[in-house]
Design a protein that fits this description.
410 residues, mainly alpha, globular, disordered C terminus
């Protein structure tokens, strides 16, 4: 995927004029309205060139009208223009979100989103994979999937076979497309399944059993001089790769996957397998009705399950694994729980004396048993007070409307 951001492409042709008839030859002002909306939004919220914004806006416009034309549901609704506007706004929102994240953070976000969807489906036959082993398979799979998505992007936008995203806006457009491409629903007998899950299952089943390699032995070499296994080309290639790529991967690349795995484990340990199933389906971006169909629930039962999952999710995020979750959210104690200096000052002012003392000791890195003793609290009382402190900060963060400026990575 990294090559998609850095590869050089030929000089682009002159920017096309805004369409006056839609892609299918039908006279309509709707396509012009959507094009102008997309163009103005991209000009306002990015630092991309005029031509770059023009090209991306044109591709978004053509795509949404192609979808509206091909969708029997949209055609039957009689509200084609409304559907086209909704689709266009969704694509703009996705593209701008990746743009504001920037090249590096955007890649991490996309990688984490897709990894979480396929994690449970990467399970090669006759192999008991560790957590790290599964992540390695996921990494291999996603690299091929990114290339497939790039080819699909070229094909659907009628771009040349050498096209590569060159600017941050083009990379953001490609990453947004890749996320949607992976989540596309593929009709199967009696159900629908996301495209990336089908690809992951096929990839997983194709992994040969003989590909299993002991990583530690491969790195250190075999202690049995007569063992010819370690002379095989695949093993030699692995050792060479580990020698030339000794630098560890960025921890944030897998942090979201760790959070997902820990939450699954937390739910299963508490005999909440139905909540784990619900969470798994939510990771696949399924609608409420689809979840009800898969789990065989009524709307009332699904709503109850959703509320129970939310209860456990909050307990996990604010009590059980609060350090991990807050590190993932970049809202650790070292960053004042993700609050700005002004928000932090107002936040701490509303805490009572004992809460402020607890917060100070936590920031100093004191263990809970020493904090409880210093404050004259039981461990249960300490956890209850700490839960309330984190909850108040959580509410402040979630109530904010983002006002961050556009990325400067263009």
């Amino acid at each position: 995927m990294n090559s998609a951001a850095t590869a050089t492409i030929p000089t682009a042709p002159t920017a096309p004029t805004a369409p006056t008839t839609n892609t299918f030859g039908e006279n309509t002002n709707g396509e012009e309205v959507i094009f102008q909306l997309a163009y103005k939004e991209l000009k306002q919220f990015t630092k991309a060139s005029d031509k770059n914004c023009h090209d991306v806006a044109n591709r978004i416009t053509i795509e949404v009208y192609r979808i509206c034309h091909e969708s029997k549901r949209i055609q039957a609704s009689g509200a084609v223009e409304n559907s086209a506007m909704t689709l266009a706004k969704h694509r703009l929102q996705q593209c701008l979100r990746y743009y504001q994240l920037g090249s590096s953070r955007g890649r991490v976000e996309l990688h984490s989103t897709l990894s979480a969807i396929i994690y449970r489906y990467i399970n090669p036959p006759q192999r008991q994979l560790s957590y790290q082993g599964r992540l390695t398979i996921i990494e291999d799979f996603l690299q091929s999937f990114y290339l497939e998505a790039l080819n699909a992007f070229r094909r659907e936008n009628q771009l040349g076979p050498t096209y590569r995203p060159q600017t941050l806006l083009e990379l953001s457009e490609y990453m947004a497309f890749t996320e949607r491409y992976g989540k596309r629903r593929i009709p199967l007998p009696g159900r629908q399944q996301q495209l990336i899950i089908l690809r992951a299952q096929t990839f997983s089943q194709q992994q040969p059993p003989e590909a299993i390699v002991d990583i530690e032995q491969a790195a250190e070499g075999s202690s049995n001089e007569g063992d010819g296994t370690w002379e095989e080309p695949a093993v030699q290639q692995l050792r060479s790769a580990m020698a030339t790529q000794a630098a560890p991967e960025p921890e944030e690349d897998t942090l979201r996957s760790v959070v997902v795995t820990e939450l699954m484990s937390y739910l299963e340990q508490r005999d909440q397998s139905d909540c784990a199933d619900y969470f798994s389906l939510r990771l696949q971006d399924m609608s409420a009705q689809e979840i009800e169909n898969v789990l065989g629930l009524t709307p009332r039962q699904r709503d109850y399950l959703q509320q129970r999952f939310k209860y456990h999710l909050i307990r996990f995020a604010l009590l059980h694994k609060w350090e991990l979750v807050h590190e993932w959210l970049e809202a650790s104690l070292h960053t004042n729980l993700g609050l700005t200096p002004q928000q932090w000052e107002a936040y701490t002012a509303q805490l009572d004396e004992k809460q402020r003392a607890l917060l100070d000791l936590k920031q100093q890195g004191q263990p809970d048993d020493k904090i409880a003793k210093a404050l004259g609290l039981s461990m249960a009382q300490l956890q209850k007070r700490w839960f309330k402190i984190l909850e108040q900060a959580w509410e402040i963060r979630n109530s904010l409307v983002s006002g961050s400026s556009a990325s400067t990575h263009e």
